[in-house]
Amino acid sequence: MEDQPHNADLPALLEDARRRLVETGTRNRLIHVNRSATRTKAMDILGARGVDLFDSLRVQGKRMRFLPREEGPEEELDLDEPHLSPMLREDLETGRGRDLYLATRLGPEALQRRLLTLHADARTAEEEQGVNILYLAIGFLRWYESDSSQVLRESPLILVPVELVRDDRRATFDLKMRDTEIVTNLPLQERLKADFGFDLPDIEDDEAFSPDSYFADLEDRIGGRPRWSLDPDGAQLGFFSFSKLLMMRDLEAAQWPEGAFEEHPVLGGLLGAGFDREPPLFGPQEPLDPRLPPETLLHVVPADASQTRVIEEVRAGRNLVVQGPPGTGKSQTIANIIAAAAHDGKTVLFVAEKMAALSVVHDRLRRVGLGELCLEIHSRAANKKAFLDELARTLAAGRDAPEPPEAPEALREARDGV
To answer: What is the pTM of this model?
Structure first.
């Protein structure tokens, strides 16, 4: 690996891979949301100012309730004047709790069904992928793909990460913001830059951020574009996936030291020249005991001979792929690899497509007393406060690390029959 030539094409290959992470076609809901569709899992919020929604959820941290319309044919509903029950209408007209309600176009039963679906799908996505995909979109850019196009595109601008919280007293769900960052709509930013040379402003997620200022800046930028407009008060609750977008941003060359990508041997192997085949450390039928004294085996969970071979190949710095059907001990092997790497003074980034795979390995390490080695950056632990709390706890625990045990001479003697 160290002798591989410098790959001059690596930056271009990496940029191509980076751009393929982001879908900029109109099938991506971050590029186009059909707000007129009725058969959708999303839910429009009516009659609210976008700035007020942001203030209630983000600044004040309030839980907001959903308002159904009165029963009746949906096609008779004026979307700008949602039909409310008399009690709720009185509350809103008198100003009592106005900032706690989210008016919808759905009747009571339809609203409950929609909320149940949103809640179940959001929970499933988080359990399987380890990320939240439920957002409240505030503000929409209205644009056309060309001067001759008659198809209106509407793109969400400010996406507030939210969750549906069960309200047992009312047998329904409330909406509250999650403690995670608000990020720029990167696919839209890429699409507008590539097609129109238009710079969608970044969202700076800090206390100074104001939707009013953001929308005013955007209004100025689209001023010279015919038929483009802004709906600052449009709002929709729905699913938007950002996981690949964050990967794309992390892979920007500007985020890394000069030459970090071009000179990286693993990236060069993956994207360019491939990897040189190396002879295995052990022969196919070679006994392992003569080569591996017990004091060098760092198995925190049981490992058979085939798993031990994999662990030692990784410790030797080899690049390899391990395949096997479910139940063959891959998660055990990964747990042992992580423990051995930590013993050897290395750090490990363990990634998986499904959160269940991360949880299995984390649980194994935790059960053998190595939970302090792990810093979770998935599921509900993936927010700044939880991250910093976990980091502080781990650093504090490191001060009380126990003394390592002595060499297992008795084990070696028992194994070798000495």
So the answer is: 0.74
